[in-house]
Amino acid sequence: MSPFIAELIGTMLLMLLGNGVVANVLLDKTKGNNGGWILINLAWGLSVYAAVVVAGPYSGAHINPAVTLGLAAAGVFEWSLVGSYITAQMIGAALGAGLVWLAYKDHYFQTDKTDVKLDTFCTRPAIRNSFSNVLTEAIATFVLVFVVLYIAGPSFNANGIENAQIGLGSLGALPVALLVTVIGMGLGGPTGYAINPARDLAPRIMHSILPMGKKGSGNWSYSWIPVAGPILGGFLAAALFLILQ
């Protein structure tokens, strides 16, 4: 599998399962209606696990432009690949959001609250304050990228046997999943923790395209914050990582 396809599929899985749980909890007449914030956080963490297991061996499973930019700024990823990775992430996020809509289509048409429908695609703040919202997204993404830069699974290399390596396999994805879960639980309250420009922007675009009965605006005046905040946080994480080396 090429890195481009791996990033696309990984980000698609992330959005399908992550936004899928939001739809299950928020939309009317679902089996998981009112499942709560803990369920959402756990499912987002597990969605990261699924995405990293699939994409990790082929692309490193960035599944997030802020991670891609942060790793490149830290010198551990090639700048020449950044554009293709972000393109794949945006396409994958859009496809994942479309699959959530397809799975919950009947429930979208049964739900009258337009803000609830928007919440199943992208984030919005609990209290609108542009400075605070950017800061929150930057802090949360800083934690994500900074810790990711230090995550490395142990491996065993056999001398004299080319490319022989024993690693953690799928268990290597678990630390990242747990990291995203605790970020959501600890820092997700103010903004819904986008911490990923593709996760917010591509589904927001899909919300404006897909039919779902009564539909409000995409809250586009807020849309720059889940893009700018995570990118800023990713660069700050890279800067501190380089300083500490």
Describe this structure as you would to a colleague.
- This protein has one domain: Glycerol uptake facilitator protein (Up-down Bundle), CATH 1.20.1080.
- Helix 1 (3-26) packs parallel to helix 4 and helix 7 (130-150) runs antiparallel to helix 8.
- The model is unreliable at 153-159 and 161-169 (pLDDT under 50).
- The longest helix has 24 residues, at 3-26.
- The two termini are 33 Å apart.
- It is built from ten helices and two strands; from the N terminus they run H-H-H-H-H-H-H-E-E-H-H-H.
- With 245 residues, the protein is mainly α.
Let me know the CATH homologous superfamily.
Glycerol uptake facilitator protein
Q: Kindly report the CATH topology.
A: Glycerol uptake facilitator protein
List the secondary-structure elements in sequence, H or E.
HHHHHHHEEHHH
Strand content: under 5%
Structural class call reads: mainly alpha
Tell me the number of structural domains. 1
Radius of gyration: 18 Å
Most strands sheet? 2 strands, antiparallel
Identify the notable features of this structure and list them briefly.
mainly alpha; 245 residues; two-stranded antiparallel sheet; globular; 10 helices; Glycerol uptake facilitator protein
